[in-house]
């Protein structure tokens, strides 16, 4: 019962000093044991751990973080409207991977949307106050000012999907070029003659690379690339509908479509059905992401599987390494800090 009395002495939670008095050691020794320092004898460590258990002492992580100039928080920043975040499986899969990897640490995760100028301004002020130890950036467009702001503020950051071939930040991406190449190669192997593509937003480097893979696969098969068959969408279902409508007007004879996301493929499928085109008999359809949408579509959608959860986990590992590395960013190379993970074509009935 003595421990219970000590815990409530003064009415508050037990202090480091009370643990030190109970263990018969100095305050600094308790601090070293709690922080896992090897410079403590086994007997002393056992005495401190017993005192911690008896008193129910909980280390004040906020105070420890402050002393180390740390916040123990990282931000997942999405430069998109909230509606898109909740409509696209890509984001929820990414969040799942990030959350799972972060659960093994003491870090807190903040989800921040920056889909308009006002939100971006508020975020800039928040970051300038150094309220987080690091930032994960997903779905970044080529002209987004956020990555440069993070560099200026010297806040560790990892980007999901590079902005260009000359990306200056640590990044995790999947092989968009190879994924698209495999999708079009698959359609060619099925004997399709007129293959169109619904691209994502072309100010997103990953979407550009998918179009590059589409072109390269056609050229490798000795086919001429008809630019009228390349129509950008915006990664939304409505964007897929609009693009599919335009493609059918431009080229009614098309017999295959490669969509840059499963969500856009779902929009394309609606239009094809409305126009009386059977899938896959009249038009074969391939998507990208291999989300739940692909599995539940009728017919089930052939899709390029991105390892999105694995990408989220890899981003956390990379960011924690960035936070731990105290050297100035300018003195470090990007070797080993720009990861490209492989994709996989998952064949289903739509093609």
Describe the structure.
The protein has 351 residues and is α/β, with parallel strands linked by helices. It has three domains: 2-59, 434 Repressor (Amino-terminal Domain); 73-174 and 309-339, Response regulator (Rossmann fold), CATH 3.40.50.2300; 176-305, Rossmann fold. Helices cover 46% and strands 15% of the residues. The protein has 15 helices and twelve strands. The strands form two sheets. It has a six-stranded parallel sheet, with helices on both faces. Helix 13 links the parallel strand 8 (256-259) and strand 9. The relative contact order is 0.11. Mean pLDDT is 89; it is low at 1-10. This is LacI family transcriptional regulator. Residues 14-68 form the HTH lacI-type domain. Keywords: DNA-binding, Transcription, Transcription regulation.
The proportion of residues forming helix, as a percent range, comes to 40-55%
Structural shape: elongated
For the report, how would you describe the main beta sheet?
6 strands, parallel
CATH class of the largest domain: Alpha Beta
- Low-confidence runs (pLDDT<50, min 5 residues)? 1-10
**Total helical elements:** 15
Strand content: 15-25%
Number of strands: 12
CATH topology of the largest domain: Rossmann fold
Order of helices and strands: HHHHHEHHEHEHEEHEHEHEHEHEHEE
CATH superfamily of the largest domain: Response regulator
Provide the CATH architecture of the largest domain.
3-Layer(aba) Sandwich
Number of domains: 3
- Give the helix/strand class: alpha/beta
Q: Tell me the distance between the termini.
A: 72 Å
> Nearest-angstrom radius of gyration?
26 Å
Mean pLDDT reading: 89
């Amino acid at each position: 019962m003595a421990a219970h009395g000590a815990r409530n002495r003064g009415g508050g939670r037990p202090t480091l000093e009370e643990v030190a008095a109970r263990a018969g050691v100095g305050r600094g020794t308790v601090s070293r044991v709690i922080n896992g320092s090897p410079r403590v004898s086994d007997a002393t460590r056992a005495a401190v751990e017993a005192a911690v258990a008896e008193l129910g002492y909980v280390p004040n992580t906020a105070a420890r973080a402050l002393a180390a100039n740390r916040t123990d928080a990282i931000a997942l920043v999405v430069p998109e409207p909230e509606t898109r975040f909740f409509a696209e499986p890509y984001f929820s899969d990414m969040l799942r991977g990030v959350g799972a990897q972060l659960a093994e640490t003491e870090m807190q995760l903040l989800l921040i949307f920056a889909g308009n100028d006002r939100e971006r301004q508020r975020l800039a002020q928040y970051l300038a106050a150094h309220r987080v130890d690091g930032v994960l950036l997903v779905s970044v467009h080529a002209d987004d000012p956020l990555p440069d702001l993070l560099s200026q503020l010297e806040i560790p950051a990892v980007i999901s999907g590079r902005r260009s071939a000359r990306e200056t930040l640590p990044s995790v991406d999947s092989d968009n070029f190879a994924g698209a190449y495999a999708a079009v190669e698959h359609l060619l192997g099925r004997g399709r003659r007129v293959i169109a593509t619904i691209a994502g937003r072309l100010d997103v480097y990953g979407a550009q690379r998918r179009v590059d893979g589409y072109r390269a696969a056609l050229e490798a098969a000795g086919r001429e690339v008809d630019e009228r068959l390349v129509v950008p969408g915006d990664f939304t279902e409505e964007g897929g509908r609009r693009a599919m409508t335009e493609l059918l007007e431009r080229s009614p004879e098309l017999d295959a479509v490669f969509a840059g996301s499963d969500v856009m493929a779902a929009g394309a499928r609606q239009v094809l059905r409305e126009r009386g085109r059977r899938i896959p008999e009249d038009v074969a359809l391939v998507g990208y992401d291999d989300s739940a949408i692909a599995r539940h579509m009728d017919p089930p959608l052939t899709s390029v599987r991105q390892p999105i959860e694995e990408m989220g986990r890899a981003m956390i590992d990379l960011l924690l390494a960035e936070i731990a590395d105290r050297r100035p960013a300018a003195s470090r190379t990007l070797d080993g800090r720009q990861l490209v993970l492989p994709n996989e074509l998952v064949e289903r009935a739509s093609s």
